[in-house]
TrEMBL record:
Signal peptide: 1-20
Predominant place of localization: membrane
Subcellular location as annotated: Cell outer membrane
Keywords of this entry: Cell outer membrane, Membrane, Receptor, Signal, TonB box, Transmembrane, Transmembrane beta strand, Transport
Domain of life from the UniProt record: Bacteria
Organism expressing this protein natively: Ohtaekwangia kribbensis
Family assignment from sequence similarity: Belongs to the TonB-dependent receptor family.
Name of the protein in its database record: TonB-dependent receptor domain-containing protein
Pfam families: CarbopepD_reg_2, Plug, TonB_dep_Rec_b-barrel
Amino acid sequence: MKKIILYINILLLWSAAVYAQTSKITGTVTDPETNEPVPGATIVIKGKLTGTMSDAQGNFELTTGVKPPFTLSISSIGYENQEVQVSSEEKIAIKLLPKSELMNEVVFSASRVEENILQSPVSIEKLDLKAVRETPSISFYDGLQNLKGVEMVTSGLTYKQINTRGFNSTGNARFLQLVDGVDNQTPGLNFAVGNLFGSSDLDLESVELIPGSASALYGPVAFNGVLMMRTKDPFLYQGISAQVKTGVNHIKEEYADPHALYDFSLRYAKAFNNRFAFKINASYFSGLDWYATNYTDVDPQTSPEQRGANNPSRNALNIYGDEVVRTINGIGRVSRTGYEEKELMDYDVNSLKLNASLHYRIHDNMEVLYQYNIGRGKASYTGSNRFSLNNFVLQQHRLELRGKQYFLRAYSVIENSHDSYNARALGQQINRTWVRDLNGNIVSPDQADAMWFTRYTAAFNGNVNGVTAGNHGAARTFADEGRYIPGSAAFETEKERLVNIDGLNGAGVFSNSKFYHAEGQYDFSSLIKIFEVQVGGNFRRYDMFTNGTLFDDKDQEITINEGGAFVQVSKKLLNDNLKLTVSNRYDKNQNFKGRMTPRASVVATVAKSHNFRTSFQTGFRNPTPVDQYIKLNAGPITILGGVPDNSTGMNVYENSFTSASVSAFGAAFGAAVASGTPPQEAVMQHKDKLVKSNVAYIKPERIKTFEIGYKSLIGEKVLIDANYYYSSYTDFILNTVVIRPQSDVMGGDGTVNPAAAQDILNSNAHAFQLYTNASDKVSAQGATLGITYMLPKGYTVAANGTWASFDIKDANPNNVPAFNTPKYRTTVTVGNSEVFKNIGFNLAWRWQHSFDWYGSFNEMRPGRIKAYSLVDAQVSYKVPSLKSIVKVGANNLFNYHIYQAYGSPTIGGIYYVSVTFDELFHP
């Protein structure tokens, strides 16, 4: 420790000595055509971190420890990038030339180094600061669905999930979401909860999105793509910024009246002598969530023509508790009476995001920063059930040392699920608290379901005075006597009690899990002149804690270590018109074999404006901690994660039968006994129908992708972007059920042990749902085409279309995740930031084809998502004297009510007004 303190003191003294010899560069930035100042231009010393921004009058002041001569790089939205040689401390007059908004966009995420977006080796999309400000959607995150190839699924107002290139879901563990390089996933869920804990619009600088696998550079989570969000640097974006949004939703809805929503954001940043800076951010959103009110009867054992409100075994999609069903002799299948989701969920959702960061420049090419983020939110999430993430808290600590060629970053992500709960379990558990026996006494929860069906049977068979026999409605009314009425004091009391009980006896969801991550990267290109070389690596440790409710972690730790490293080499040839890039990454998780994920690409530029690219990419996805270590005894079945040490001593993988063979044996035995065969003889006749299971331990999923693309900027007016990809997938993670008898499954003679067969008949066996992989291979292909046209007088028209196709080949559909992607999607946007002086607008129209949605919420049975088209629109008015923008807009302007996932809520229109004050009191 003493040595560390000594080194820090030496470093601070050295940095102080460096800054004691400072240069001060001042100047102005103007538009040569209008001679007006250019505010917000970025001025950076080339090859260094040191930089500043021009103020409202176009003036800037840059203090640096670098002595002239050096080069300044100046950039601003709507102007060409410019470099200026500085030879002395004299005042500099810089005139930026206007440019097409389509030119020279710089991206980082495609290659992990800055490059022109036209020459990116893979498909990439970007929203810059101007696009963020002018999005017609209520937030930048909603606006992402206007990008090519992006799919968005809404589980609620505060939780929206994005995906690219198929295998879409409401909880996407195949897609990496980064905010300033920090993985934004929650450790327990293992995916990012939309932007519930991300950046506010006010602090966001840019968004880059890579559709498709990016594991070669970003590791296992980037199986389907990467979303990289960058927030504003406090050295460059200073002053006070504030934003107020208010709006209304639930217009013309059956179950809810119009309701206000609010969104407040505040940002303050300050820099001192270009050496120390800080920023603080606060944002708060609240509103009434969308309602899930699809009451379609989805009971799988009732023929479609007999389903509906009068079906005794009705299982309505968004009613919970009616999944409990029995077949009663002489009556048929009957389900319990459930509760509607809107009676169980808390739809008053909100999101509070707070963060602060401290930045210290040790010298002009070395900066150290610390950032703390904390978010608390309430969101509705559709998974295997409908969940309320209630007062869910996510904290992040980030420490980073960076220069122009390198960075070292360490961060931790910590969650607390607090009052989160499972709405389906809540409905079922409330149903077990009020059931009376035939004498009118309330029975215990473990007897409640059986007693309810006993009451139903007695009433239907005419054994209850005053109840008409043979009447399903009358029998249900009698069985429901004493049922808690939604909204009553008794109902609310039981609801609150059960939400606070974790595990199988309640509805609460408990997780205090966390993960720690460290990574670094160095760009050797300035040292190795013949190639561009980047090297990087990372280490991550998951530390899971569910207090025994999900993992076997009440008395032991569940930790997972994984890490990886990559190297990327690029070479430009033919006067920089041909760029070859190869990269390779090695990853190792403690539970799986190490693996390589190579990537190779070629980008060729023809006639300066035509850029052709082709690439081959590989990727993989590690099983999530839940896939690896879940150990949940759910009564008749235990759900068991698929790594070897999770089942040590349980004798499941070694000694079990397949579920299908147990069913076949049971049916054959029953038929034989019914025909007069003695039971023991029937066992010996049919025991060989039992098949010993051969389930492999879980391993990562894999993908290979070939892609070609073309980008061209024609006459600085038309941008064309097209690509085609073909991907093949193997080792998809799935669940399979096995039955473990008490006896050995195989006898000494190599045949099925009769004692094990007898165990099956005597219920001396237990079922296990195991996580493993499918051997099936499938493929997907798709293409996107985007055209952007700069019209006269500042108008921009853009259109893009996406085609996606899935080929299941000979695979078993039960072994493959659902593709859940429309075959066709298209978007058209029209905008002008200044139709009249200080008045602009933006409009986006989206359409997508109908398709079947498969998800665990409906037990992988299909639900139709109808084709729909939506319009987002906004009109803005700038008030330059107040550095403010007033915006009036709408999401889903025409208020069409649509589903984006089966079982999730219907989405209607949002109409809003926002006022933004940007960088007031900028120094």
